[in-house]
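[job 0417] fold request received: Sterol-4-alpha-carboxylate 3-dehydrogenase, decarboxylating
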Amino acid sequence: MATHLRSAGKKCTVIGGSGFLGQHMVEQLLKKGYTVNVFDIQKRFDNDRVQFFLGDLCDKEALLPALQGVSVAFHCASPAPSSDNRELFYKVNFMGTKAVVEACKEAGVQKLVLTSSASVVFEGTDIKNGSEDLPYAKNPIDYYTETKILQEKEVLSANDPDNNFFTTAIRPHGIFGPRDPQLVPILVQAAKSGKMKFIIGDGKNLVDFTYVENVVHGHILAAENLQKDSALCGKAFHITNDEPVPFWAFMSRILTGLNYDPPKYHIPYWLAYYLALFLSLALWLLSPLVTIKPTFTPMRVALAGTFHYYSCERAKRDMGYKPVVSLDEAIDRTLQSYPHLRRAKA
Ligand SMILES: NC(=O)C1=CN([C@@H]2O[C@H](COP(=O)(O)OP(=O)(O)OC[C@H]3O[C@@H](n4cnc5c(N)ncnc54)[C@H](OP(=O)(O)O)[C@@H]3O)[C@@H](O)[C@H]2O)C=CC1
Ligand SMILES: CC(C)=CCC[C@@H](C)[C@H]1CC[C@H]2C3=C(CC[C@]12C)[C@@]1(C)CCC(=O)C[C@@H]1CC3
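[job 0417] inference complete; emitting structure tokens
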């Protein structure tokens, strides 16, 4: 194959490339010999090998220059769930994704890989080894997830082999790893303020936590296997560590690894849920006077007190996926990457 064709095949754009997952995507893609463009609303790192395009993905005209000569676009941009901004979720995750699809088609990008979420099928009740055949949640756990469903449907239905445009979606769950601004920092903050005393439920509920490098590996395999007549076209794939763990054992391991005490008292699931619901209601009533963002929310209680782990057999079968970093190794690497969050021993 002529060099220019080979390098065109390896030219990609990471939309959301300044974010947590996006930065890890960029690092691995560069290691694998891809030429990488980043499109993001902000620039959070410097790298001479990356071409940055700053803009809002809702603006198709802003996206087009970042997609010229590119064969694969990875779309992993989203407002943070914690921003709690319904209008923004709808605008970016739904309308913005329509703009991404249109811009890809117009620029002649052949493959679009969306970062969706396994939570698109989660309604707050147990899911054990859930497959991709589960229906979309009728009552998603929050509005953010509702717009992730709209977004995934939009991307998968855009798959159009007749026009040489192929789409797929990766559904990760509980991504963690170095530089994650959410899971470990939120947990440490909760521990520091004395909020990590209680285990919700009996502590036996299994959950997937997925190391960021495995999530990246799934995305790259998806891009490399996405082609005419492949099983990936227009389909979604769970990517997990394939090692579900008790939610509270994972939390305790992170906390003790950073010298914080693990939670030890149990509180029944339904009591926690109704307390969180009552708290949300009280804060909503007070919202004209004061704005408080609670750590303890019904959605978090559902995430912390139910089983929700997913099968990644489809990804193994159709793209040869296998986690590249074990959960043990992943936790160790993550703990080492947060020296500033470690509590000094008394
Ligand atoms: N983290 C997790 O556990 C999971 C994440 N996901 C999905 O993975 C993807 C990546 O998540 P993560 O890396 O954690 O998220 P981040 O918030 O770290 O990264 C998202 C990036 O997209 C940028 N962005 C937001 N809005 C726009 C816009 N309008 N135009 C251009 N760029 C924009 C963000 O900028 P800014 O920071 O300024 O908003 C940020 O740089 C998301 O789609 C998320 O839904 C799915 C399952 C689990
Ligand atoms: C499994 C999964 C989807 C993980 C990623 C999300 C996490 C950032 C949060 C999900 C549940 C959250 C949670 C807490 C902290 C942040 C999460 C792990 C608490 C432990 C915070 C303190 C409490 O009051 C209980 C919360 C339970 C859920």
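[job 0417] notes: The chain has a mean pLDDT of 95. The pocket of LLCNDLXC (ligand 2) is lined by residues 173-174, 182-183, 186-187, 190, 195-196, 207, 295-296, 300, 303-304 (CB under 6 Å).
[job 0417] exit 0
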